[in-house]
Design brief:
With about 325 residues, this protein is of the alpha+beta class. The protein contains 7 helices and 10 strands. Helix 1 packs antiparallel against helix 3. The longest helix is centred in the N-terminal third of the chain and has 15 residues. It is rod-shaped, with a radius of gyration of 33 Å.
């Protein structure tokens, strides 16, 4: 099915994040033209302890799911094979997150004559069944990330299917709405999820085995299974080039060679090519002599001159 996932109202999502942050929190907000960004990204005064607040991770997952537009549903083919089939779906928008119990159900429409309907019902997902094990993944291309779920899927009874019908996203496929004879509803109940969002929320692994941050649902609440890794600190600036122990002065203009400013590669004077020229007067490298400073350090001057003080007129 190629209909697009209805965009989650972002104001509601941001409100949910802010609400979650008021009690416990943390945020890895990345600037986006349509989101309100925490002014102090890493400050506890902004959202509290930051990395593994379950409520906030769920809230950020909901935002990423909204931006993903579509989701891919994978179901077991069944029979004597372990093959799976996958297709693009348009899940109903999920409820805003208020605590660790959120994201308990995701509804997905289907045609009861379709292959996925048959695969789910044959794997235990018929009405009243224990549920078929399926996967659902939202791919947020602009945010460079995804939200992936494992869980059980069942076909809803008629009452629930009509109650949860999503007119905003599904009317184009069911001419009579929830009364369309072939309309059915999949109730997906996730019990495990993983999330990566490097471009939108800076949620990432940071582990040697690349295992992404993941949560599992136990007794009706999500808990962290693989923690979110904090963003690496910015690299320290490169140290300045050490001062040369030997000073060389142009015998024509008295320019003193400085590797930090006179050579892009910061080479010592001795390592400069013979074609190198004085950056001030254009004299060849051979015009330079070691010099003697006022501090008494040894040096050399031009053969027909007395030693000069660096950087000063004779």
């Amino acid at each position: 099915m190629l209909s697009l996932f209805s965009w989650v109202p972002l104001a509601c999502c941001v409100q949910a994040v802010a609400s979650a942050a008021g009690t416990a929190g943390g945020s890895r907000w990345k600037p986006h033209p349509q989101t309100r960004v925490c002014e102090e990204k890493y400050s506890p005064s902004c959202f509290g302890e930051l990395e593994n607040n379950v409520t906030l991770i769920l809230s950020e997952a909901v935002i990423a799911m909204g931006w993903a537009s579509n989701a891919i549903l994978a179901t077991p083919r069944g029979g004597d094979t372990l093959d799976i089939n996958a297709r693009v779906m348009s899940p109903k928008t999920v409820d805003n997150i208020t605590d660790e119990g959120g994201l308990s159900v995701i509804y997905i429409d289907t045609n009861n004559l379709s292959r996925k309907y048959k695969e789910i019902t044959s794997a235990g997902g018929h009405v009243g069944g224990s549920g078929a094990r399926v996967n659902l993944m939202y791919y947020d291309t602009l945010g460079t990330g995804y939200v992936a779920f494992r869980g059980g899927a069942v076909i809803c009874n008629t009452t629930e299917a009509k109650q949860e019908y999503w007119a905003a996203g599904w009317d184009a496929f069911y001419p009579n709405g929830s009364a369309t004879p072939y309309y059915s509803l999949i109730k997906f109940q996730p019990d495990w999820m993983e999330i990566v969002s490097t471009g939108r929320f800076d949620i990432q692994s940071g582990r040697a085995d690349w295992a992404p941050p993941s949560l599992e649902r136990v007794d009706g609440k999500w808990r962290v299974e693989v923690p979110v890794a904090p963003s690496p600190p910015p690299a320290p600036p490169a140290p300045p080039a050490p001062p040369s122990a030997e000073k060389w002065q142009c015998s024509q203009c008295l320019h003193v060679y400085d590797p930090a400013t006179d050579d892009p590669q910061h080479r010592k004077f001795e390592d400069l090519p013979d074609t190198w020229e004085c950056p001030v007067c254009g004299a060849p490298k051979s015009a330079y002599r070691q010099i003697k400073f006022e501090d008494g350090s040894d040096g050399w001057a031009h053969a027909d001159e007395t030693p000069k003080t660096a950087g000063r007129s004779p």
